[in-house]
Write a structure and sequence with these properties.
The complex is a heterodimer of chains A (516) and B (216). With 516 residues, chain A is an alpha+beta fold. Chain A is 30% helix and 33% strand. In chain A, helix 3 packs across helix 4. Chain B has 216 residues and is mostly helical. In chain B, 58% of the residues lie in helices and 2% in strands. Chain B has a two-stranded antiparallel ribbon. Chain B is elongated. The chains are: A alpha+beta (516), B mainly alpha (216). Chains A and B meet through strand 14, strand 15, helix 10, helix 12 and strand 19 of A and helix 3, helix 4, helix 6 and helix 8 of B.
């Protein structure tokens, strides 16, 4: 059997690692970088450019350069968060027939899965060059708070890239695996993961090599991009007030502003002040206009405060779900480039009352964890294993659009749970079982995963017929549901395959095109 | 290997876990963790689909066996046989709501607790497991014990993340700290935020008045 590689498919950057002599090793890309920008460009002549080369085109080719597509994958355009996001992206985002958010590249609609596949294929090539052998299998990480559709879409992206995704691993858990593989003493960890697009918080214990997630929480639309945007707004608003020119209306200027904002944010993580210098950013009747100014750390920290505040609630909820208080946490693990920002680290330390653990590279640890997981799978690492949880409630829609939860969030998987439901009408001969995922009490506000019907029930007065519904979730989070009429034993079952909106044929066709 | 384990778990869970009669909760958990390493479905993740399915079933049975045995052991044993106080919890039922009080030495007899909740650790003189109320926080704040106040505030927020008054007090604590560190702009933002959340927070009003008088 070939090797299984570990890929951290990030919002802004991706990273690949393999296990070598029981140690996870991050692999350099052809350009010498240990991480690769998760960006894909289509040139005028139709060539596809991935990674650093694509990032260089951001200014010159903004309409055909896609970044941050992870924030669109497996989501609908009508989701409020997606709409807010799409309104600010330089490339056009459109809805497909079923509402999925896709990207319009010069008239060709491309799915986020296909775009992510280009990044995954690049990571696959990086690994193959290093290993000197073809690679067909991978462990890919996703934010812990991703729902089933987003996970399936990520798997499909792997399939298009020619990779069988053997496991979808949660990013904070992956970080804990990489950290814990080196520090195996029993402890309780809080993994605080703020990346380019998402925030995850997980609390887990390491006990005799068994990593057990106690609870996980997060915000799938809070990340470094949002901080960049605040800085962009700060600079653009000021420029508008001073010169009467709105830089946001000029896509090239906006790209330069975005790059400058990201750079300023990174510099202000170590320095107290930084210069933003964008000569010839715009033209006015009296000649060219330049944007030259100094930014202070305190300034952007104040401007970003509302974002930093959004970190609190998921952490408190996670502590409560794990039945912990901050005093029970032994160690905070900071993951994701954003945690380099001092105000973020301060907030994490403030919430958990512990210093953050040093000596971990927040950009690489997730990929390293994916490689560790591949080693657990392959049997190289016999002495550790991971017990993860499902991040969302799973349930059935009942009368009045209520969500009746069968498997609650933060249940350790694999798991099986049963619940009994009754008919609501006299002589009801069938029940439709609709399966939803999410935290809202109203089923329709949650994500619908599927529906099936149990028919030929024995006619009886309402409430007399009882149906037992059993949910089985396997270690990969795949759900199988059976329903049986109590008394007659009549049963129906369905395996819920979340669909990312692509059919098997489409995945195959896209894969061939990408491979060609 | 999987089929054999599945049968053994169905026939005699105790011997399947390799336990002697009257095993303690500790021993049961240790056996579970050891077998979890061998039988977790991830170990079969690259094998045929039906083997993966079977591995899930075996693991589910293993977990049921652990939960059932641990429950029985807890019921039948005295104080000595319980798990180590407050070590990472198992996969059993969550602790009973509100059942956070756990004396360091337990009385003998039946225990309704499914797994021991967090240990009684002390921070700042207050046992963490019995979260104090706002009055305590206000007291700590007035005594300028910011760290302790914040620890307690975080516990209160964990109980109810939306409690406006608690959030206001949190902002107040941050604001005061900023003020002490001469970060006056930050202090103003925090204190104003505190008043935004709780317009009647006298502490914040006083602090803001002070801040503005000193400034001018």
């Amino acid at each position: 059997m070939g090797r299984v590689i570990g890929i951290d498919l990030g919002t802004t950057n991706s990273c690949v690692a393999v296990l070598e002599a029981e140690e996870p090793t991050v692999i350099h890309n052809q350009e010498g970088g240990r991480t690769t920008p998760s960006m894909v460009s289509w040139n005028i002549d139709g060539d596809v450019v991935v990674g650093a080369a694509s990032k260089r085109q951001m200014v010159t080719n903004p309409l055909r350069t896609v970044f941050g597509v992870k924030r669109l994958i497996g989501r609908k355009l009508h989701d409020r968060e997606v709409q807010v996001l799409a309104a600010r992206l330089p490339y056009p985002v459109v809805a497909t027939k079923n509402g999925d958010a896709w990207v319009d590249i010069a008239g060709t609609l491309r799915s986020p899965q296909e775009i992510s596949a280009h990044v995954l294929a690049k990571m696959k090539r990086v690994a193959e060059d290093y290993l000197g052998e073809p690679v067909f299998e991978a462990v890919v990480t996703v934010p812990a708070y991703f729902d089933d559709v987003q996970r399936q879409a990520t798997k499909d992206a792997g399939a298009i890239a020619g990779l069988t995704v053997r496991a979808i691993l949660n990013e904070p858990t992956a970080a804990a695996l990489a950290y814990g593989a080196q520090h195996q003493h029993n402890q309780r960890l809080a993994v605080f993961d703020l990346g380019g697009g998402t925030f995850d918080i997980s609390i887990l214990t390491i006990e005799n090599g068994v990593f057990e997630v106690l609870a996980t929480n997060g915000d799938t639309s809070l990340g470094g991009d949002d901080f960049d945007r605040v800085i962009i707004d700060l600079l653009a608003d000021e420029f508008l007030a001073e010169h009467g020119i709105n830089l946001r209306n000029d896509s090239v200027a906006l790209q330069r502003l975005k790059e400058a904002a990201e750079r300023a944010k990174i510099e202000l993580s170590s320095a107290m002040t930084t210069d933003v210098n964008l000569p010839f950013i715009a033209a006015s009747p009296s000649g060219p206009v330049h944007l030259v100014r100094e930014l202070e750390r305190g300034q952007i920290e104040r401007a970003c405060r509302h974002l930093v505040d959004r970190l609190d609630a998921p952490c408190h909820k996670c502590l409560a779900d794990a039945h912990c208080t901050p005093a029970d946490i032994d160690q905070i693990l900071l993951v994701g480039g954003m945690t380099r920002m001092p105000i973020i680290e301060e907030r994490a330390v403030q919430i958990f009352g512990k210093p953050a653990c040093k000596g971990v590279n927040p950009d690489e640890i997730v990929a390293m964890g994916a490689a560790v997981h591949s080693g657990i799978m392959g049997g190289e690492l016999q002495e550790i294993v991971l017990l993860d949880v499902t991040p969302h409630n799973m349930g059935v829609k009942v009368a009045g659009d209520r969500m009746s939860v069968v498997i609650s969030a933060n249940t350790s998987i694999p798991t099986r749970a049963k619940k009994i439901f009754a008919t609501t009408e006299d002589n009801q001969t069938y029940v439709a079982i609709e399966i939803y995922q999410g935290e809202n009490e109203l089923a329709s506000r949650n994500r619908r995963l599927g529906r099936f019907i149990l028919g030929d029930l024995k006619p009886a007065p309402r409430g007399a017929t009882k149906v037992e519904v059993s949910f089985t979730m396997d270690a990969d989070g795949i759900l199988e549901i059976t329903a049986a009429e109590i008394g007659t034993g009549r049963a129906a079952s369905v395996q819920i395959e979340a669909s990312s909106g692509l059919t098997a044929e489409e995945i195959q066709r896209l894969g061939q095109r990408l491979g060609a | 290997m999987l089929t054999a384990m599945h049968d053994r778990l169905a026939r005699d869970p105790s011997s399947a876990l390799g336990l002697v009669a009257n095993a303690t909760v500790d021993e049961i958990r240790a056996a579970f963790l050891q077998l979890a390493k061998q039988y977790h479905p991830v170990r079969f993740g690259r094998m045929a689909v039906d083997i993966q399915r079977l591995s899930n079933e075996v693991f589910l049975a293993l977990r049921v066996a652990h939960d059932t045995l641990a429950k029985a052991a807890r019921r039948s044993s005295g104080p000595m046989a319980t798990t180590r106080g407050g070590a990472p919890g198992g996969s059993g039922a969550p602790p009973p709501p509100g059942g956070l009080k756990l004396p360091a030495s337990r009385p003998s007899g039946p225990q309704p607790v499914a797994r021991p909740p967090n240990p009684v650790r002390r921070t700042g003189g207050y046992p963490v497991v019995i979260p104090p109320d706002e009055a305590v926080v206000v007291d700590l704040l007035q005594r300028q014990q910011w760290d302790q106040a914040r620890t307690v505030l975080h516990q209160l927020l964990a109980r109810d993340p939306n409690a406006k008054r608690v959030r206001a007090l949190m902002c107040y604590a941050r604001g005061r700290e900023a003020q002490l560190e001469r970060r006056l702009d930050d202090a103003r933002v925090e204190l104003q935020e505190a008043l935004g959340l709780d317009p009647d927070l006298q502490l914040a009003k006083t602090a803001l008045t002070e801040l503005f008088t000193r400034r001018t």
